[in-house]
Design a protein that fits this description.
By secondary structure, the chain is an alpha/beta fold. The protein has helices at 15-22, 33-40, 50-62, 66-76, 89-102, 106-117, and strands at residues 10-13, 45-49, 82-85, 122-125, 138-140. The protein is 46% helix and 14% strand. The chain starts with 9 loop residues before the first strand and ends with a strand.
Length: 144
């Protein structure tokens, strides 16, 4: 693993890495096992936005894959693992900043704003465009 993580750091997880983990992606699925282990040992907590929940639950609902939907809901509801953050006026204004400064679409701007407002020490994504954000420490799965 090429990423150094300190105890009690806040890890923001984007949608794609969560999907890769939950659905056992052949390349990226195991890359997040390290973080799950740290969380289970009480070192970190993942933070994500409601956008991630909407995005990960849409395909199972579309496909009527109720088992996968339940799997996601169970995982996302584990308070010791996840803190799902709802939008606030501060997140809204920071989303405007990311849209105006970097040209992100609204969902990505909300994700990034949530990470920043929540004080994320690391943002894990697989979206290379997020690397241009200077306000956050963005790490792609290939860097893990």
């Amino acid at each position: 693993m090429g990423l150094s993580i300190q105890k009690d750091e806040v890890i923001f997880i984007d949608t794609a890495p969560l999907i890769y983990y939950m659905e056992n992606h052949p390349v990226y699925g195991e890359k997040l096992d390290f973080f799950i282990q740290l969380i289970e040992e009480g070192f970190q907590q993942w933070v994500t936005s409601f956008i991630t929940c909407v995005e990960v639950l849409t395909r199972p609902r579309w496909d009527k894959n109720w088992a996968l939907e339940r799997k996601y809901l169970k995982f996302l509801s584990q308070d010791f693992l996840f803190r799902v953050v709802q939008t606030t006026p501060e997140i809204m204004m920071q989303s405007v900043h990311f849209r105006a400064k970097y040209g992100f679409k609204t969902p990505d701007a909300i994700q990034l704003a949530t990470a920043q407002v929540c004080g994320a020490d690391v943002v894990i994504t697989n979206d290379l465009a997020w690397k241009k954000v200077k306000e956050l420490r963005v790490v792609t799965l290939d860097e893990l």
